[in-house]
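[09:14] KT: can someone run the structure on this one? pasting the chain below
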Amino acid sequence: METPAHAHMIDAGINSGFVIVFCGAISAPPHRLAENMTNALQKIVARKVIEVEVGKQHSPLEILQEKIRSMPRPRNFFRAVVRDSEEPTRVIAEIKKRSPSAGLIRNDFDPVDIAQRYHQAGAAAISCLTDEIDFGGHLNFIKLVRDAMPLPVLRKDFIVDSWQIWESRAAGADAILLIAECLTEQDIVDFQILAVELGMTVLLEVHDVESLYRVQNHVGFPHVGYSLLGINNRNLKTMKTDITHTFRMVDLIEDRRVVVSESGIRTAQDIQRLQQHDVGIVLVGEHLLRQPDPGQALRELSDA
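[09:31] RB: done, structure tokens below
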């Protein structure tokens, strides 16, 4: 876990264009940015590229690969949320302490307790934030959560390097998030191939129509059954959420079985409206985590 001093050095490095850490100089390679990335995402990606270079020094790829060889296969995240069932909606319940848009979300934050409550309340899968600086997460949360209940776990972070995919699997993740606005098409294709080789599901997330057009042909690549398409209802410029964004976007998508509506889902009525547009998977976190009992909040949300 980074110390405040380390975090300060990273911030300083982003502003000055180089990074110096006590163990020596690290020159982060330039990242191939998607053209429509917002300033907020640019800053996070710049920080993440530097964090990855630091991480590689502590956990070289060979060490991660050796660890993975002795691990069992990932739990099937795709099958957990996309299945023939009378249950109209499957919920991916999220664990996060804070966010840049919402600030502190939950003060008494215990990821294991939250995960167990979600499982008992009928969640189909778990999403776990691992970014430390902006979301209060940690990579170790994945193993803690996964060991505490049987549901598959998505590592939600800003993936900008293939090393992070190996890191995710070594940490126990069953699925990863890829944000289209942070990546080029070549990044997305390469990262999907690697994730599938490691047995992990990919949640490919888009925020706008431009990104959807750019990546929708990659959903289901390289094999059907490993890829989901997330529509994030948060406007990255205003940071406001509106679930009608999913309604507009989903009209452009042929296979709605793999669509996940993310952000801004707060009521059973929201779930019902999504069902009317044939969207049967939702990712919900902030609303649940602001309630005294996240598990009870999930039960109430699922009464649609």
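[09:33] KT: thanks! Confidence is low (pLDDT under 50) at residues 1-33.
[09:34] RB: yep, looked fine to me
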